[in-house]
Amino acid sequence: MLVRLLYASRAVDRIDEPLITSILEKACAYNAAHGLTGILCTSVEGGVFLQVLEGGRAAVNELYGLIQRDPRHRDVTLLDYAEIGERRFSTWQMGNVNLSRVNLGTILRFSESPVLDPFQLSGKTALALLEELMASAAQVTRDCG
To answer: Could you give the CA distance from residue 107 to residue 104 in angstroms, rounded to a whole number?
Structure first.
């Protein structure tokens, strides 16, 4: 059974390139070993993460539990959880979007302000934003090698 989990969290410390690199390196290794795919969206200005995880129910649930206990995150909030027939982010073991590099019009299509606050979005809206960002793959900066 495949599931998709979407969550938001606030960064404990400032989001910077070393933090993102560290998260992505660990995510790539973990996700490859557990059959997970997804995308991580970071907002330096807002100090928030928005992430989709896809894979088997047990693997996704286990990883979400690890994220909830990760000292780099606080206010980890589940936005959406669904059983799915197929993955939407199947080509990304862990893609990354830095919102500071995204056209503000794209963010404003889904958000009240140009600084994304995923805690103010419905799960459906947050997922639509991530799908839009993934579709314009120029915004997605890296994936596992």
So the answer is: 5
Name the residue among 79, 88, 94, 90 with its Cα closest to residue 124. Answer: 79
Greatest CA separation found in the chain? 38
Residues 48, 11: contact at Cβ < 8 Å? yes
d(Cα 48, Cα 55) in Å, to the nearest integer?
23
What gap in Å lies between CA 138 and CA 119, rounded to an integer?
A: 25
Beta carbons of 48 and 113 less than 8 angstroms apart: no
Model pLDDT for residues 105-118, shown as the tens digit of each residue: 888 899 888 888 99
Residue 106 three-state SS: helix
Its pTM stands at 0.89
Q: Computed from CA positions of residues 11, 16, 22, 28, in that sequence, does the dihedral angle turn out positive or negative?
A: positive
Indicate the SS3 state at residue 113.
coil
